[in-house]
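Good morning N.,

You mentioned wanting to compare the apo and holo forms, so I went ahead and generated the holo version with molybdenum atom. This is what I fed in:
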Amino acid sequence: MKRRDFFKTSIAASAAVLGSTSLAAGETHQPNETRKVSKYAFPEKRPLITYSDRPPLLETPLSVFTEEFTPNDQFFVRWHLPDIPTYIDPDTYTIHINGFVKKELKISIADLKRDFEQVEVNAVVQCGGNSRSAFTPIPGGIQWGSGAMGCARWKGVRLKDILDKAGLLEGAKWIGFNGREKAAYYKTPNFVRELELDELDDHVIVAYEMNGEDLPYLNGYPLRLVLPGYYSDSWVKMLSNITVTDKYKSLFFMDKAYRVPDNECECETPENKAKKTKPITIMNVKSVIGYPENGAKIYHNSQVVVRGVAWDGGYGIHKVLISIDDGKTWEEATLKEDMGRYAYRAFLFGFKPKKYGKLNIMAKAVNSLGEEQPLSKDIGWNRGGYKYNGIQVVNVEVV
Ligand SMILES: Nc1nc2c(c(=O)[nH]1)N[C@H]1C(S)=C(S)[C@@H](COP(=O)(O)O)O[C@H]1N2
Ligand SMILES: [Mo]
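and this is what came out, ligand included:
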């Protein structure tokens, strides 16, 4: 596909398809996984669950999460602003490094590939609002099921090496990252994230490749920030500017959105909102079951292999436990190969259903710190609907 044609094709081909967002209060605390993929596909993508066409908001169906890596053409998509550049020229594209640096830099993609050490990291990118539809009452925002995430092999250059080349000036403390897209209304700020320099370690990269290919356009072509272990609001796509400052500039997305209550449970009530909040940063431990799907029929006494993925913010998955008796007893699933501490850990669990009728399959991941997923009912509410990591319950029928 010619990148130039991107918006012509995507907008013409896609009718607005908005998912239903109603989950009756108290009925269930599971994320809404009933939505079907759209009839229409965006360029470089297969049909995905589509919440909006402009900006594109696309969710990966749960059935994809049985493998360590998520294919690029099924990878979820989230943009805040509608005005995404329709044409990117990889030969003239540059990122600009400025602010509190000794030397301002303009780096092209060719420079990045030639002048810096190329590194790779396997890492999960997950929206902080992933599974938001599980919260009751429903917080504002996209009513994601659990597919606002994926895991890829990212290739690029260490952010640290780029900053070293520019040279930080004394007093440099914050670093801002800009995406190239624009707001449709001038009052909406552009997409910018600010991080404290201390937060950044060697694993943070400016990536140009995802699963061995150029980044898909909708996942931030030609360059994006990769912050392993962190929720993806900080993974700025279509990166245009890296600005080092001495002061925190309190830009919108950092200041207002992507925050949780600054208390032990990170929770509040709709009537009693927490006064102090903090940014969401490191991901908590979580797992999803990709197979079988909700509503599936499985055969009595046949071998059923439950498959899914588990991950956390980089401590590593210690074990995944499965229950087929509503959580009364739990058995360990087999973990597949370790793809690195920031990646999905795929798991398998075989069993033979002995009773006809309804059956619930549950998965609970435990990380190397001993942290484990809570039951959905034990998760406190927050107004943004962030960081949901409840134990998933898949309802199947034994026939
Ligand atoms: N430039 C830019 N980068 C962005 C965003 C955006 O709106 N613009 N959204 C962020 C959020 S909230 C998410 S969840 C991820 C989504 O990444 P993906 O579209 O590659 O799945 O991008 C992040 N980076
Ligand atoms: Mo997000």
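DSSP finds four helices and 24 strands in the chain.

Happy to go through it together on a call whenever suits you.

Best,
F.
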